[in-house]
Structure to design on (157 residues):
């Protein structure tokens, strides 16, 4: 027979479990529909693959696990539609820019953006020469655009 936990410990554990649940909910709510779909497809297939593994084989490296899960999602395209989605347009832009540290410790953009990292390194060097008492760094911003058309239903028209 299991011993009952003291009330303060049980309350603490219940509170921590609620905090974890709230954190998961906040994270999932912050995702776009596409990101949520990717997390869903990969998590479910990862779970399924985990159940199917022979434990005597040991665990594969993370990169092998990712490849295994994505391959399995491709095989079962109807069950994992987000991984298998086709889009009208899908592009990514990577931009670099210089940031300067403010007196309060925050970082602010202090240059225009460029897709040429070499050009931004030159700007960083120039900023450091002009303002040797200020901390500067290079930041990278990745913007991914996915255009997916949706057909309006009769009720939405």
């Amino acid at each position: 027979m299991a011993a009952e936990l003291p009330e303060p410990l049980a309350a603490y554990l219940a509170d921590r479990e609620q905090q974890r649940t709230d954190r998961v909910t906040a994270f999932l709510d912050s995702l776009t529909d596409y990101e949520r779909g990717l997390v869903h497809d990969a998590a479910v297939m990862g779970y399924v693959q985990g159940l199917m593994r022979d434990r005597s084989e040991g665990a594969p490296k993370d990169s092998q696990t990712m490849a295994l899960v994505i391959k399995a999602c491709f095989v079962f395209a109807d069950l994992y539609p987000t991984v298998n989605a086709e889009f009208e347009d899908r592009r990514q832009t990577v931009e670099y820019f210089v940031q300067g540290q403010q007196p309060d410790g925050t970082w602010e953009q202090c240059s225009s953006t460029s897709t040429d990292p070499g050009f931004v390194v030159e700007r960083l060097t120039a900023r450091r020469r002009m303002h040797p008492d200020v901390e500067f760094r290079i930041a990278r911003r990745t913007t991914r655009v996915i255009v997916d058309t949706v057909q309006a239903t009769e009720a939405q028209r």
User: Anything to note?
Assistant: Strands lie at 89-101, 107-109, 136-147.
